[in-house]
């Protein structure tokens, strides 16, 4: 039998090949020492940048200590899976405030269960290999946003990319349009080397963020982030942020859309991540008119379903308030007022107020145009 080091080295190569065969775009291996990130993570919590996401603080430093989460863990196999569809020109919707903008990752199937199943299969392949060739037993556990794991720091450590100033992982050949997942294992596989950061002096993501959520390089105040406000926040969206949401009703991609590295984004091979016709390029009014049954039907298997119909209406109400004045919008907002929850009502009333202001502005503009056309004084 070959030496144990050689055995694990060969096994590592096989693991990466199996990962590719299962549909992952890249597989890396990291050790479990995340101590260098503990102080920064604690500062993030102390600054209350996690907002209502109490689960971020519940387990304390366990997030940075994989062997406390799963005793016996020696290595973390980190994977990424591309989700960019072939027709990815969704940024055009940001220029059309009558249409809804939904974050690219959420237009297709929910990735959590799919990736977790693939990671489980990868673990089973390793288990079988060890049992047959080395008479060893493997203990493993897959994670995809399902436990207190510092997944981005692990992906960075495993060489899948570097941490960008927006705090997302960037890969030189793929940008940042990918999901991450982890497989905790109790065998001492050889680890991969981190890659060098290549953001340089670029601060495009920081400057473009509509709500200034990137408070400093690599640090995001979730309470200001549109993704948090439209997905994680359960209550009312603070008024100061409502006009800044524009037509973004679920998530936000602005910091990724502006990133120069995303010109190299890789198209996904997974058809389930392609946009669903019932969600892509849809008019805000059409989505706002969905009743709860329609919402549940059209978001089945989608990550959007997790916010529920109430927050769906809350988010679209804000987007309708931000849209250009339209009598059709005012009509549908007034129509919806009957029977909605207090949370939705607050946002509908705000949207109606915004639309009425725009209506008055529109009338003044029309009068001004007519006055100019007739050669009358502008205050006529």
UniProtKB/TrEMBL annotation:
List, for all copies, the residue spans of the domain called 4Fe-4S ferredoxin-type: 187-219
Cofactors per UniProt?
[4Fe-4S] cluster; cob(II)alamin
Q: What the protein does?
A: Catalyzes the conversion of epoxyqueuosine (oQ) to queuosine (Q), which is a hypermodified base found in the wobble positions of tRNA(Asp), tRNA(Asn), tRNA(His) and tRNA(Tyr).
Matches recorded under NCBIfam families: tRNA epoxyqueuosine(34) reductase QueG
Name the residues annotated as catalytic in the UniProt entry: 145
Task: Relay the cofactor remark from the entry.
Answer: Binds 2 [4Fe-4S] clusters per monomer.
What is one cellular component GO term in this UniProt entry? cytoplasm
In this chain, [4Fe-4S] cluster 2 is annotated as bound at 209, 225, 252, 255
Q: Which reaction does it catalyse?
A: epoxyqueuosine(34) in tRNA + AH2 = queuosine(34) in tRNA + A + H2O
Q: Would you tell me the protein name for this molecule?
A: Epoxyqueuosine reductase
Q: How does it assemble?
A: Monomer.
Tell me which residues bind [4Fe-4S] cluster 1: 199, 202, 205, 259
Q: In which pathway does it act?
A: tRNA modification; tRNA-queuosine biosynthesis
Q: What is its EC number?
A: 1.17.99.6
Q: PROSITE patterns annotated for this entry?
A: 4FE4S_FER_1 (PS00198), 4FE4S_FER_2 (PS51379)
Q: Can you tell me which residues bind tRNA?
A: 234
Q: Which GO terms describe its biological process?
A: tRNA queuosine(34) biosynthetic process
Record-listed cob(II)alamin binding positions: 63, 145, 163, 169, 180, 227, 252-253
Location in or out of the cell:
Cytoplasm
Taxonomic lineage: Bacteria, Pseudomonadati, Pseudomonadota, Gammaproteobacteria, Alteromonadales
The terms under GO molecular function for this entry are: 4 iron, 4 sulfur cluster binding; cobalamin binding; epoxyqueuosine reductase activity; metal ion binding
| UniProt keyword list | 4Fe-4S, Cobalamin, Cobalt, Cytoplasm, Iron, Iron-sulfur, Metal-binding, Oxidoreductase, Queuosine biosynthesis, tRNA processing
Tell me which family the UniProt entry assigns to this protein.
Belongs to the QueG family.
């Amino acid at each position: 039998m070959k030496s144990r080091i050689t055995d694990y080295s060969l096994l590592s190569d096989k693991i990466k090949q199996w990962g590719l065969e299962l549909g992952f775009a890249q597989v890396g291996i990291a050790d479990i020492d995340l101590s260098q990130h503990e102080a920064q993570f604690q500062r993030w919590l102390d600054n209350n940048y996690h907002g209502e996401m109490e689960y971020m603080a519940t387990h304390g430093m366990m997030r940075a200590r994989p062997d406390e989460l799963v005793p016996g863990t020696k290595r973390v196999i980190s994977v990424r899976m591309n989700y960019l569809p072939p027709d990815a020109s969704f940024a055009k919707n940001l220029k059309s405030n009558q249409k809804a903008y939904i974050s690219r990752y959420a237009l297709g199937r929910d990735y959590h269960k799919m990736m977790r199943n693939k990671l489980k299969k990868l673990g089973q392949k390793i288990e079988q290999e060890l049992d047959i060739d080395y008479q060893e037993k493997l203990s493993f556990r897959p994670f995809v946003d399902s436990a207190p794991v510092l997944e981005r720091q692990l992906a960075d450590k495993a060489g899948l990319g570097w941490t960008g100033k927006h705090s997302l992982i960037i890969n030189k050949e793929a940008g940042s349009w990918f999901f991450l997942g982890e497989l905790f294992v109790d065998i001492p596989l050889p680890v991969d080397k981190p890659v060098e950061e290549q953001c340089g002096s670029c601060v495009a993501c920081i400057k473009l963020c509509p709500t200034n959520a990137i408070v400093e390089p690599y640090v995001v105040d979730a309470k200001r982030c549109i993704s948090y406000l439209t997905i994680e926040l359960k209550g009312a969206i603070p008024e100061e942020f409502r006009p800044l949401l524009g037509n973004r009703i679920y998530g936000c991609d602005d910091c990724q859309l502006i990133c120069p590295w995303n010109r190299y984004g890789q198209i996904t091979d997974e058809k389930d991540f392609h946009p669903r016709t019932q969600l892509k390029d849809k008019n805000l009014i059409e989505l706002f008119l969905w009743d709860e049954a329609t919402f549940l039907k059209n978001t089945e298997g989608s990550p959007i379903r997790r916010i529920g119909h109430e927050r769906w209406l809350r988010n679209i109400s804000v987007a309708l308030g931000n849209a250009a004045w339209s009598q059709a919008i005012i009509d549908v907002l007034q129509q919806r007022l009957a029977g909605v929850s207090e949370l939705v009502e607050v946002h509908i009333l705000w949207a109606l107020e915004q639309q009425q202001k725009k209506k008055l502005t529109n009338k003044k503009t029309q009068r001004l145009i007519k006055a100019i056309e007739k050669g009358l004084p502008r205050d006529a």
